[in-house]
Amino acid sequence: MNVTVKAIRDCKDEPLYIRIEDNIEEKISCAIDKDGNIFPAQKTEGGVVVILTAKQSDNIELELSDKKVFNTIALRSGSEKLDILFDNKLFTSYQYLSDLKKPFLGPVYTKTGNTFTRPDLHHKEHPHQRSVFIGVGDVNGVDLWNEPENSGFLKKGAPENIICGSAFASFESNNVWCDKDGKPLMDETRKTIVYSQSEECRYVDLEVTFKANYGDVFFGNTKEAGPLGVRVNEAIDVTHGGYMKNSYGACGEEECWSKSAQWCIYGGQLDGEDCAIAIFDNEDNERYPTCWHIRNYGLFAANNLFFRGGLTIMENKTLTYSYRLCFFNNNANDVKERFLIYNLNNK
Prior knowledge:
The strands form four sheets. Strands 7, 8, 9, 10, 11, 12, 19, 23 and 24 form a nine-stranded antiparallel β-sheet that branches. By secondary structure, this protein is mainly β. Helix content is about 5%, strand content about 50%. The protein has helices at about 250-255, 305-310, 335-345; strands spanning about 1-5, 10-20, 30-35, 40-45, 45-55, 55-65, 75-80, 80-85, 90-95, 105, 130-140, 140-145, 155, 160-165, 170-180, 185-195, 200-210, 215-220, 225-230, 245, 265-270, 275-280, 290-295, 300-305, 310-315, 320-330. The longest helix has 11 residues, at about 335-345.
């Protein structure tokens, strides 16, 4: 099968979704352009995902093929965790440990084996800020961000709907948010997608859907919220020489904290390498662009609730947040271009 696609900008290792109306019966593992360049490709619902590197062009002709050129991204089940590996090298893990109140993704590893995110599971300072996590500090009056004795907890579902291929790997988890006594407050479905990209920059797409299946759900206007939170490695926080910047050019906590922006980036030096984490807000999220709860000590969170007021999910309704996290093993000079491609590809 041949398809024609458009590269809206110069792109490198960009996941491009190609809608195809006809049923795709053949196996697909790569796409080949007219010059013989080969890219990872994979069937998905309603079309194909191609990890494209190309110059801006209106018409790029691709042949979809079943040639076994690229390794499949591996998702390896362990004890209360799911490891994500590229070419047998651990990138990160989804951890749903029974002795912790919330699941999280992490730590996330750099190409040198260091970590973008704080690896400690039981740190004395803000112990609930584990790598990449989802939390809200006021859900019908229950704290599901911090973890004091009387806080709520999540009944954590094991990963399911696991897909592994040459272009991407994905999985879902279904969690129940509860008060301290186990009374359910709402349901949550979390989808995680990683893509076949080089270590120069790798994406993690998160889609979090809250479901008000037990009555109305009220999120209070608390700064202890994301819903997305990231705790960066101490070595790259601002107090240790790191930096933060947002999409409008603001720098540092004084300029970035509480401000709305389409994206923020937090980075510094790890093992002599420029490393950074960027978070892209999705224009379909409520009250886009989000405000940022971003701190010199290493917290990096998207938070509309504190700065714009709480919200209610009416009974039997849902609320979905989508984000892209970019993990750079370079100077991240192209972060603006990557964001533009992300939101333009959503249209």
